[in-house]
Automatic annotation (TrEMBL):
Organism annotation: Halosimplex aquaticum
Annotated InterPro entries: WH-like_DNA-bd_sf, WH_DNA-bd_sf
Gene3D superfamilies registered for this protein in UniProt: Winged helix-like DNA-binding domain superfamily/Winged helix DNA-binding domain (1.10.10.10)
Protein name: Transcriptional regulator
SUPFAM superfamilies: Winged helix' DNA-binding domain
Domain of life, per lineage: Archaea
Amino acid sequence: MNEVDDAILEFFADQDDGLVLSPALIWFNLHDRLSVIEKSHETVARRMRNLEKRGLLEKVDENKGYYAMNQKGRDYLAGNLEADDLRLDDE
């Protein structure tokens, strides 16, 4: 987990519950509008795939790449998860 992951999850948490967004929209808001990150769109897309693998985001449309934050993502932001809860099998 890194600062981009936290920025992505915090952006989802600041929106209406259940909002579905693409990596492009997340990047545009965090990079261009809010100036929270200085990373590329590709980095944001890659980190969102990683967050989905860790169970913190849910991919709601495989074809279009739309994501939503789930309860585990909210639990992470609240500090209710241990580091072991976020490990992938190959780590």
